[in-house]
Structures are given as structure tokens and as C-alpha cells.
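Entry
Fold in C-alpha cell form

___
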Amino acid sequence: MGNSMPTEFDDSQHFATFKGTGAMRTGNAFDVRWSEVTLAALRAAGVLDNMVDGLSPPTTDKLWLDKNLDPAVLKAWDPVGLAWTKVSFSTALMQPSTYDPQRIAKDAFDTANHSFRANITGALPRPALNKMRDTLSALDLMTSGSLDQAIRRREATNSDASEVTAKFQEAFSECADRGWALVAPDGTYPLNSRLTAGKPLSLKGHSETGTRLQWVSGAASSGVRVAVSASPRPMVFEDLTLETFGVAAGKALDVDCSGLISGGLIMPRAESHANISRLLIKGASGYTVNGWDVGVDLISCLSCTVRDTRINGVYTGAYGSVPQASRGVRFGGDGSPTSLDIRGLWVSAVNEALETIDAEGIYLSGFEFVTVNKGITTVNTLNESVLTASSGHIAFVGTAIDIERMAEFDINTLSLYNVANPAEVIGMKIRDCARGRIAGNHFQRTGTTTIYRGIIIESGNNNTIEPNIFDVGNTGQPIEIQAGATNTDVHKQRFLNANAFPIIDAGSNSRFEEFPSYGGNLNSIYTGPGRARQVHTLVVGCTGGPADTLTGVAINTGGAIVETFSFDGNTALQTFTSPNLGLSFQRRKVSGTWGSWGPKEAENGSNANGKYTKLADGTLICTHTLNITSVVGSTVSATWTFPISAVAAPETVTTNVPSASLGSIFSSASGKTSTQATINLRRNDTAVATAVEVTMIGRWK
């Protein structure tokens, strides 16, 4: 028989002969690699009926025999890594069958009145090569004989923590290397050190409270850490409880993708996404006894989503005392993390519920932060970030929302109230932010807190405060606009308390739909685009208002209302109305300069020098009756001082003697100035006192 063929050979050195019909000498025989002959035979038999060979890859639902290589390589599309990868024994032959019958119900059962028969088997399609739906249970990953025993013991005690930790770590490493998800069934798993993976890993339980990973040592080096520096792909963490016996110790879930940063940026195709849903992160004995220091730490991830997750920190004392744990969720790091999307997050008993660092987009809704020092904190180096927060509640000890350097933000429909009775709290602090909107929020003071400061805009431009509700107590300060803020637009607010000054404005070009208790200078009220009409309710001491015509003393501004109508910065109109005094004035701003106050319609008054009427168009009319004793045959003159002064000598001063005596009478006016005129009288019969009626028509403005 000659030498027998070896059972193993080098495929790159040996060939098989592939021959068609006829003798070999006819030229229809070819040398072909043994691997290619084998694969072709399997395809012919229908086993590899979806294999396509060639130089170009087929559609991703096919197997590809890549003939760019010699020998050719059989590849399958990996939807996680987004690449064609070599098919191995485990990927090709250790998959569940396409039709894997599963028992989905118990046998038939009968009741007194009804009979049911359930289908106990069913065809559950599961393509063998579709890794996106491939998961690997810790029960099935038995790389050593004791793994199954260690993980299956759901009634394991703390004394088993070392064994369970070792086998869980083995499963972590194996699943990360294979690119599979680790699915832990329901049960409590005692652990005594951190579980780590150096590649992307997805960790899933069967239910939020059913699958419990419990760190019994309480050491800082606890929790789950995934540090990714290669082979990026999306990660999923869901349906788990992560609990600790530590007191403000360790990070429950730590995902660090900083190893993927290239050139200072997270590459868009890095696929460093983390999706977190239905996690319960807490202390093993309750949040007045123990709890994590950090719930979820997301460092340099391209994007993250958090859904329906609860994080309990730990208090320093009884329920409701000052939090001791550091934070609930942190999202940030180098490389400009792109997007954090949170819906249904519940955090309690931490110093900061949410902290973001240089994150480009933060989107929150339906959240509950209870007894936290700070609710939302953003730290940004550049003004490139966007924040939206809506439909949430923050019960806080220090500052509910503290944001800086946001390119845009929208904070709406939140309820912000203080707990634990600190001396001073802040609802929102805005610094160096632009194009922001604050609307529909409820600021509420509780307990004995002395000062509740609602909204503080320290700096930034073009921010808008739409209607909100402030119930901050009589000692609170609802809105404060500081000197660094420009172009802040404030709509009408609802103030439920008798605050002395609900709004403090030291900003530049601030404008208000309604400004209650204004105590500044009326000349400083903004005129320009953005607010055609503003209303300011004045308090005593407000300056720049009209003065009493006779005394020159400023009219009492307490309770007065000023309306400002502006076309631009140079053209405007102000009206001043005092319901208490029954007075109304107005003035115009022309070429950037305010004119004098005058009556809005007509102002009437009188004194010892006569009566006056000031018309809104600037006309001044003064009248008086002078008694002049004449000298026979001579002209007698008297000075009439006008009851109020005109801006210039009047155009007209007339005289009239209503009832003449016997003889010739003559009267006239001369020597007119802005304050007086000379009245002349001559009688030719007798020297008697004569009543002379005088009228002046001029201008008061």
C-alpha cells in the first residue's frame, strides 16, 4: 500500500486533485487546497449552502470563502465588531441549532370546568452565526469543572465569596475575549473583590431584583470595572442588583474607555457605547447603614443611555440627613464624550446626583433625585455643551442645579425643594451659559431654611427666564441677575410670598415683562429690541420719576407703575401712573436722551400767582387776576409772576378789564420772560383799584 497519508498535514503545502469527466491527460484536472475541497464538498452536501467564494465579500448574511488568501479562509460577518472574521470551531459548530425546541409551558392541566392543553415545544428561530443575539450564560461557560458548581449555588454564603468571585471573574474574562454577553440567572452571588474586564463586556441578569451581585467585604475595590483599550463595541448592563456592605465605598459600575482616545478625541467609530437599564445599586442593609460611594462612573464613552435605574447612596445619620456618598452618575473624561441620555433615573443620599465633565450633550427626563447635596452639576472647559432637563424632581440640601459654560440649555417642568433645613440653599446657578431657557419650574422652600435663592444668573448672555412659580418664603430671593449677565429676558413670574425685592438686577440690558418692587433709576430701564413693552411696579425711593411742578420735589413713587414702550435704544416712551395720588405723567426718549416728565393728558394746578394748565403737547396756559390802583392821568405797572415757569418767554400775554368805570381805561403787557410779565394800567377819571384779568400762553416743554 505504500506510505499511509498522515492524519495532519500542512494545508499550505499539500494539494488535492480536482478532476472532471474524462482522463486526467485531457487537461481537466487541477490541484486544489484540501481545505477548499472539503468546504466545497460540505456546500455540495447542503451543510454550507450559504457559502460564497470569491475575491469580494458577499452580503453579510452569507459565509465568505475569501480567496484573496492562499489557502482561502472561511469568514463570517461579525455585527458587533463590524468586520469579517475567521470562522472557528466554536463559532461554527458550538452554536445552538437553528430550530432549538424549548419547553415553554408545563404539561396539560384540568380544572373543574375547563380543560387546557398548552403547546410544550416550539420552534424558536436563532441563526447560528448571528452574534448580536448570542449570549453566554455563566451556567454554560464551564471553562473549569467547578464553575458550574460555584455559580449554580444560589444559596451560597459569604464563606463562598472567594470561589464565586474567582469563577465569575473567569466568566468575565472569557466573555470579554469572545465578545459575548454574560447572563447571570436569578440568585445572590457573594463576592469579595472587583470584577474586571479589559475588553468590552455586556452583563445581564434575569431581573432587577432577582440577580444580585453582592460584595460582602465592603472594600473600596468592589464593583464591576470594564476598562476598554481595544476591540470596541457597544456594552449593555441590565436587570441586575449591585449591592455592597461598604459605607460610601467603591464604584458599583465603572466603565472606562479612555484607552480608546486617539489624538485627544473619542473616535466616532470607536463604538464605545454603554447602555444601562433596570439596575438597582444600593447598600446591602439600607441607605442609612451602607451604600456605594459612586453608583455609575462613565469615563470617555462616546455615548451612554440610562433607563429606569435606581441608585441609593448612604446618609451620615438617619433618613433625610446630609448625604455621605460622592455621586450617583458621572459622565465625562477626556476626548469630549458626546451624549448622555437619561430617562427614569432615581438617586438618593449622595453628594451629587449627576455630574458631567466636558460632555457635549446631556438629556434628562423623568428623574427623581432625593436628599442630595447637588442635583445636576456640569463642569465644562469650553462653551460647546447642550443640556435639556425636564419632568423631574430634586430634593436638595445645597444647590439643586449648578451649570457652567453651556452653549445651550433648556430646564423646564422641574420641582426643586430643599430638605434638611440648611441656612441657605440655591435652586439654580447659571454661569457663562448662553441661549438658555428656564420655564415652568417650581421653587419651594420647606422647613426652617432662612434663605432660598431661586435662580442666580452670574454670567452669560441671551438667557431667558419664562414663567416659573416661586414659593421661597418672605426671606427668599426668587431671581438674581448679576453684573456678568447680559441680555437676560425675564417673562412674568408667579411670586407666592411677600418678598421685599423679588428680582435683583445688576446685569446689562436686562428686560422684564413685569418687574415687581423696582427700586432703581427709571433712566436705567432697558429700551431696545426684544421687549416692546415693560412694566415696573415702583417702591419708595425709586429715582428718575416726575417731580412736583410747584415744589420740585419728586413725586412719591411707592405703588406707582411705569410702562416703557421702546422701538430701539434711541426711541422710547415712558408713562408714570400713581393710583394712590391719581396722577399720570409721560416722557419721550429721542436720540437716546430722555425728555422731561409731563402730564399724560392735562395737569391743572394753582397757587397765589394764579392757575395753570399743562397740556400733553407742551402747551402751558396760566391765568390770574391782578388788582392795580391807578393814578389819574398816569400809567401804573405791576409785575405778574407766573404760577409756574415756562421754558421760554411766552408768545402771548393778554389783559382784560371786565367791568370799566367811567372814564378812559387802557391796559397792556410788556417785559415778558419765562417767569413773569409787566402789566400796565391807565385811567383818566378817578384813582381807584381796578381788577385786571391776565392770561399767558407758552410752553412747559
